Fold:
Amino acid sequence: MITAKQQSEMLDNPTTRRRALKAGLLAALSMLTGANMADARNVVDGAPPDENPLVNPRLRIAHLLRRAGFGVTKEQLNQFEAIGYEATVDFLVNYEHIEDPIEERLASLDLDLAKPDHLKRWWLVRMMQTSRPLQEKMVFFWHGLLTSSLQKVGSPGLMLQQNEFFRGHALGNFQDILLGISKDPAMLFWLDGRSNRKQHPNENYARELMELFTMGEGHYTEQDVREAARAFTGWTVDKEGNVSFRRQLHDPGQKTFLSHTGNFNGDDIVRILVEQRATAEYISKRLFSFFAYRDPAPEIVQSLADTYFSSGFSIKALVREILISEAFSSARAYRSVVKSPVDLVVSSFRLLGIATDGQGLTGPLRLMGQDIFAPPNVAGWPGGAAWLNSSTWIQRVNFGNLLANRRSRDESASLDLQALVQHQGISRPEELVQYLIDHLLDGNLSPEARQALDGYLFSNKPLTLTPSSLNQKGRDLVYLLMASPEYQLI
Amino acid sequence: MLTRRDFLKRSVVVVSAGLALPAVFTKAVYAASNSGAPDTASRKRVLVVVQMAGGNDGLNTVVPYGNGRYYDARPNIKMAEQDVLALDNQLGLHPSLEKLKELWDDGHLAVVQGVGYPDPNLSHFRSMEIWQTANTDNAQGTGWLSRYFDRVIDEQGHIMDGVSVGNILPLALRPTKSDIAVVESLESYKVKGGSRPQGETDTRVDALLKLYASYPLKAPYAALLDDVSESAHKSSEELQRAAAAYVPAVAYPKTSLGNGFQLLAQVISQDLGVRVCHIGMGGFDTHTFQPATQTRLLRVLSEGLHAFYRDLEAHGKAQDVLVMTWSEFGRRVQENANSGTDHGTAAPLFLLGGQVQRGIYGEAPKLTDLDDGNLRFTTDFRSVYASVLDGWLGAPADEVLGRHYERLPLVAAATQTSLKGRPYR
Structure:
């Protein structure tokens, strides 16, 4: 008898003749389990380590701040560790009490938000410098779920408006969010609501609302799509982005939708949808997968779905429950998710405390596969293993190079290892290595990897704490850690 | 020297051999029978898949200019008879496909008519998924080209199985169990060194690869991180070398598609062992003011394909390459109120290559017998895939596709060595 653990270990072993062999192993596993090969791969991806590093309170808080935000500096981590895990969760979810001077900072950047690149920088800098990281993380979540793209919407102004709508409702009520997004000008462009008219219904929004925004496939019929599209007729948007309801374009007739019958309009459709158990399970699963890991156990989804109803569709209640759950702090969750390019870029600046106006960052992000405000399609970014291919890997490690070599006349915009050494009272090069491994990788580096790292750092012009060595081998150290496999996972 | 990782990799061979025997055995037999001496030709062959994302309007691409119903349905966006590039007395290419018509005249282009599938899905997302998984049944599924690679056992020592132009591995190639280089541009496809002399940079890259080699095998995403880093590093070096050795024989159009085709020509002409290439362009979702948009896009496509083909020809590779286009659906027969067309169903696709026999294959859907305003497909896209898989790549198409699909007359059987057939009419 082969245990699941043995199977996953076998599967996980890459081979030199790896194509041939892996094909065989995957086939063998799928024969044994009846799973298809894609599923087999997912088993590998989620394989938990033997011990749970998150029993360490400091690592657990760092994990929370990566997932429910974009990481913190060492000093900030010290502060959160002092107040404890649950208090940190409450601090994050009750973000409206946090003073956030971000608007003034953004205003000082002198960006022209009518330009797509400036709009993207505006959001990136916001994610890097906000004092309300969970709010911003939720804006990022909503952008990936209730998508719209500049590619079709065209107007940066309307994309900004949608982004601010998400910010205003980041942990709000799911019904309010759906009611609002159904009349959002960018969305009316993106999913053709503007050409949905009584005489010529356009089903695009109605279909995606059910397939990707609320219930998921399999819970509605083509007839439901047609009826919902009829109900949404009449909401239009002009070129300037002004939304209006035009009575003569609306179909006021009777509709039958998900076994309800009435003279429904779009709001009625949303109200029916939020009441569905399928919707409760779908949004719970999406949120849990975003924060913790993919494919949660059914019990987890059911518990969250119950909370969805008992809290009156409160996203805040769901997110809080996820963040304090055992599953969120389990071995399976720890460093088990591939960092999105946005997470990689934003958290790197935050961890190293480097200031930026975002210039030169949207290009690398696009090459890594995440052009913000322009998801690939209505389903958003697929995430997970899809983040990693040969092209995106090269871009990710090259981003490490970009950041490690960050030099500027403005000290706050530089990676200044000399200042770091002074600040942290580091007196030997080994201490610097350990400090950065702890800070960037939770101290989580195998002895073999540590040996490989030291082998490079301490041979041929070995790392010392002199300015010139810090500028060469010191920066190489930062690069190697940021390009390492461990750093690719959040 | 045997590294720790090499050792572990080898030990896996021993541990798993008995377990995996049945599958590996059949695959090995298949590989031996298909890639041995009798059919070395299929080993060199390359399939180039070209995606036209957004749903290209087939009726204005291969225009049924001899059919009055076409003009009735398209008063504002029709292609006039005198403008189309006639293929016969019924059909003609869109006027901006001039360069493609030249390849038709030379005998290298085939058109497959009415390609689609039963119960068409009009969502871009879903229909792309259907085309890429070759599975109409459910939302999940592996890519059809990924399943093709499942059946291929690679020879030792070559670097790349495929190249995909862009920065996302297409669903057709996921999950990746083979070395597919995903390349947006050659300039950016390079692991950067620090700002010091070349020699020192290399030791830094070596150190990085050692970090990947010592990443614990049980840790999350270990296999993927290992594959991707190794494949990226090797293929980038290989592609940079190939770039130095390659001289384009033609001037490529200055479009991103043109750049992509040039990259592929370089890979193919330098014999890097690639079997499948993927490239694409978007923008075909022409709900409004279709004529200007489609004219521009088809010209980009036509000029790109033409340059690619001529370049391959000059490098003596045209006989080894088959190009297949696809789009997730065609468009509604009746034009809409905005000089555009809405999502539709069946559409023609193109096959191009030195061994393609010119012709129009399959049956044109009837403009008089519509399904809710949409064309009824006449050729299942999986018949095209099956014909390409066994007729061109020498692969077990029925296994890859999960069942048997009728082969197009353009490819007779698995043993056939060239892609020839009899035009439908």
Summary: Residues 1-46 of chain A have pLDDT under 50 and may be disordered.
